[in-house]
Each structure stands twice: as C-alpha cells, then as structure tokens.
Amino acid sequence: MDWGALHTILGGVNKHSTSIGKIWLTVLFIFRIMILVVAAERVWGDEQDDFICNTLQPGCKNVCYDHFFPISHIRLWALQLIFVSTPALLVAMHVAYRRHEKKRQFRKGDQKCEYKDIEEIRKQRFRIEGSLWWTYTSSIFFRLVFEAVFMYAFYFMYDGFRMPRLMKCNAWPCPNTVDCFVSRPTEKTVFTIFMIAVSSICILLNVAELCYLLTKFFLKRSKKAGNPKHHPNHENKEETKQNEMNELISDSCQNTVTGFSN
Amino acid sequence: MNWAGLYTVLSGVNRHSTSIGRIWLSVIFIFRIMVLVVAAESVWGDEKSAFTCNTQQPGCNSVCYDHFFPISHIRLWALQLILVTTPALLVAMHVAYQQHQEKKLLVLTGHADAKHMEEVKKHKMRISGSLWWTYVCSVVFRLLFEAVFMYIFYMLYPGYQMVRLVKCEAYPCPNTVDCFISRPTEKTIFTVFMLVTSSICIVLNMAELVYLVVRACARRGQHNSNPPSGKSSFYGHKLSSEYKQNEINQLLTEQDGSLKDMLRRNPGLQEKGDRCSAC
C-alpha cells in the first residue's frame, strides 16, 4: 500500500469532481507526491547519519537531533498529503451510495428509473447537487482545514521555513554547549520553500473551488426563484449535453494523469 | 506477497461488507498500513544502528538493545495488521462456498448459461442466515486481536512513550551504562497516532457488531409481528431460507448418490464421473 495505491483510489473520485478539483488533484500528485518520492526523500535520507556534533560524548548527537527535529519534514509532508487527500473519499462513498440506490431502483423495476441497464448506472457521472453538493463542499472545507493546520504545525515547529547550518545544543549528556551541523541545509531550504509554495497553490485552488460551488449554488437558486415555470425538456437537453462534454473532458484528463503516473 | 497483495485480496471482501465494514477497511488501509509503509518504517529504520551506549565494551550495545526492544514496534504493528485483516477471509470463504452452491443448483435446474453464472458471481450476498454468524464471528475475532495487541504493546512498552535514555546493566556492560535511543519524540508521535487509529478501528468494529445484532433482532421482530396468512405458510415463510438450503442439499446428495450408483453399475463411465465430480 503506497502512493500508487492512493492514486488508484483517488483517480476514481476524479470523475465526479469539478474542473478545479481535477486541477487540484493533478497538482497534488505531480508537484507534491511525486516530488516527495523522487527528490525530497533522498535529500532527507541521511538527515540523522550526517547530523554531526562537535563532541565525542556518546548519546549527545541522538539527543540533540531529537531536540531540534521532533518530527522530520518528510514525515510531516507524508502525513499532510494523506490527510489532505482523504476527504475526497467522502465524495467517493456518497457516489457509491447513490449508485447502489439507483441499482436497487432498477432491479425493482421502478418506472421512474430511466436507465436501460446496470452498466449505464455504473458509468454514469453524478451532478454535484443536492446532498452530494454538501458532501463535496464539506470535503473541500476539510482539505482546507488540514492544509492550514499542517502549515501552522510546520511554522511552529521549525520557526520559519529556513534550515540553519549550525545549531547550538546543551541537552544532557552533551557537555556544556555543543555545535551541531545539519546535513544539506540549503537543499533542504529549497525543497521546503517549494513544498510550501505548492501547498499555498493548493489552498488557493481549494478556496477558488469553494467560491465556484457557492456561486453556482446561489445562481441556480436565484434562477429558480426568478423563473418558476421552467421547461424541463429544454433544461434536460442542456444538462445532458453538458454531462457529455464533462465526461469527454474528464476521460481525457484521467488519461493524462494515468500517463504521468506510468 | 506484500501489502498491495493483501489489499487486492481484501478488496473483494469489501463488496459483501456493511457500510461500517467498508469504512473500517478504508481506515485500516489508508491510516494504518499506508502510514506504516510511507512514514513509520523510515522512522524505525535506523533504530539499532543509531542506538548508542556510553561504553566501548563490545557486545554491550547489542545486549542492551535486545533487552529493551524484544520486538520492534514496526514488526508488532505489521503482525497486528495482518491478524486483524485476515478474519475477513472467513467471510470471503463462506461467500465463495455459497456462490459455489448456487452455481451447482443452476447446473441441476438447467440454467447453466454464461449469463446466469455471471449473475451469481456478481450479485451481492445478503448478510443473513449462516453468513450472518460467520460475519459476526469475523468481527469478534478482529476485536479480540486488536485488544490483545494493544495489551501486548502496553506490557512491552509501558506508557506508550519512547524515552530518550535507558539505563542498562546487562552483561557484558560494565556496571550501569547510559544508552540513547534514536528519534524518541518522532517515535512517540507515531506510536500515539497508531494507537489512536487502532482505537478508532475498535470503535468501528463495536459499532458494526451492534448494528448487525440490532438489524437481526429487528428482522426477527418483523417476522414475528407480520406473519403471512395461514399457519402452515407462517412456518414455511419462517423456515424458507433454511427450507431452500435443505432442498439444495437434498438435490445435491441425490445427484451424488445417483452418480455413485451409475458408476458402480457401469465402471466404463468412470471418466464421465471424474469430470462431474470436478463441478
């Protein structure tokens, strides 16, 4: 179970996201998870082995490393990415539940059910409205909260986002104050800034998506209030066309993401 | 066979679980197995090489490490996750057995075409009758394993906290020696995290157990309060699933019995018999 498996799980959710949601997912997988795996993990790979203190006192290095790095950047980012991507599973569960209900309706032979067979139900893309809108909005909200919490935790633990070259340590058993040198501080600073920048972009995308959903919701509401007599056939045709277009776009997006991950 | 292989095996079981069971499976794979693989394993990666004792006595390091860490957290968690996820295989085996029975019945009643066979494979089994008991047993075993491992953890590493310094006096260390553990704070954070997710899983399992029991009692109550008309049909309806199972078993034994008779009378038909016993 690794990042590839998470990509498989979340790829399915992609179908029911808005376009901003799809961009967010792509940014997450390519600019954060992939960078973490292929680059950042190597930079932090020797963080403890090459953390050198100017003393021969056994145990001093361990204690100083533990004091200055309560939890490593890499682990914090891994936890952040796991927490930030899991609210999307709420949406996946809701969609699965709706599909299950439609299949039950279809099996009972309900006249209202407009599907020809089970396969069509399985492939159909649900519109983000009604209770699904609330689930989707909650998931975006949770993503925002987790991103903000982890950014704050980062800032709080590491006093700004810079990695210093030298740290002065006087924890027991170190004799008096001892100089300790961090391995690859500049490279670590570069990657830290990069990950913070991408995290901020993701926060912006989430805020934009939230605004988009709210705007769409209020527009629809005011339209309904303004036009009480609507023409259902005409509206359905437009929605059907939009659905088809969205499906084509999402399929091509999915192929692009799969292409990148392969 | 690795965690991905386990994921493949258990995804199949997911179909026949309750919704709480599916949430439980997602929590296990994302918040426990994935965190173990991508984060925790690298934290404990250098646990022995960076375990430093304040002595130059050869062997003291190894002996002290072994004394304080009889089994590493990572290995305990891996064992816990494997044992906790495998009761679900009981359910998978039972479902496979039921599907096998249904296929046999289809063959006997002459509906053995590809479409019906696919339908048997794809449809979701209801959690009722003997499958309910199997499912409940699997949940009880999961709970038991989780509790046992939480207890073992507490016994081996009291307080769940990783200390920075341990004092060791095992032979061949001279007198008492200070030994320093690598990354104790990070290890404590991950231990607490895994403990919290373990507790969440225990709560989910208990909720699932309660849900199953309540559902079964509600169904039973419905049967008792809404009997179909007629005394004989009431009993027929009450025993219908067992009645159907009895019918299936009878048809199958008759088929086996007649097959054995045929083979005794005509030994030349052995080949045909072999083919039939394979279905």
Q: What are the salient characteristics of this protein?
A:
heterodimer, A: 262 residues, mainly alpha, de novo design (two linked rop proteins), elongated, disordered C terminus, B: 279 residues, three-stranded antiparallel beta sheet, 3 strands, transmembrane (chain B), Connexin_CS (chain B), transmembrane helix (chain B), Gap junction protein (chain B), Connexin_N_sf (chain B)
Helicity of chain B, as a percent range: over 70%
Sketch the major β-sheet of chain A: 3 strands, antiparallel
Uncertain spans of chain B, ≥5 residues at pLDDT below 50? 229-239, 269-279
Structural class of chain B: mainly alpha
Beta strands of chain A, count: 3
Shape of chain A: elongated
Oligomeric state of the chains present here: heterodimer
CATH topology of the domain at 3-45 and 74-159 and 185-220 in chain B: de novo design (two linked rop proteins)
Our count of helices of chain B gives 11
- How many β-strand stretches of chain B? 3
Using the 3D structure, state the CATH architecture of the domain at 3-45 and 74-159 and 185-220 in chain B. Up-down Bundle
In percent terms, what proportion of residues of chain A is strand?
A: under 5%
Please state how the strands of the largest beta sheet of chain B are arranged side by side. 1-3-2
Q: Please name the two chains that share the biggest interface, counting residues whose Cβ lies under 8 Å from a Cβ on the partner chain.
A: A-B, 30 and 38 residues
Can you tell me the residue ranges of chain A where pLDDT is under 50 for at least 5 consecutive residues?
A: 256-262
Major pleated sheet of chain B: 3 strands, antiparallel
Q: What is the class of the domain at 3-45 and 74-159 and 185-220 in chain B in the CATH system?
A: Mainly Alpha
**Rg of chain A (CA only):** 25 Å
Question: How would you describe this structure to a colleague?
Answer:
The complex is a heterodimer of chains A (about 260) and B (about 280). By secondary structure, chain A is mainly alpha-helical. Chain A has a domain at about 20-50 and about 75-105 and about 125-170 and about 185-225: de novo design (two linked rop proteins) (Up-down Bundle). Helix content of chain A is about 70%, strand content about 5%. Chain A has helices at about 5-15, 20-45, 60-70, 75-85, 90-110, 120-125, 130-160, 185-225, 230-260; strands spanning about 50-55, 165-170, 180. Chain A has a 3-stranded antiparallel β-sheet, with helices on one face. The longest helix of chain A is centred in the last third of the chain and has 42 residues, at about 185-225. The two termini of chain A are about 15 Å apart. The model of chain A is unreliable at about 255-260 (pLDDT under 50). By secondary structure, chain B is mainly α. Helix content of chain B is about 70%, strand content about 5%. Chain B is elongated. Residues about 230-240 and about 270-279 of chain B have low confidence and may be disordered. Classes of the chains: A mainly alpha (about 260), B mainly alpha (about 280). The interface of A and B includes residues 6, 48, 62, 65 and 74 of A. Chain A: GO terms for molecular function: gap junction channel activity. Chain A: A connexon is composed of a hexamer of connexins.
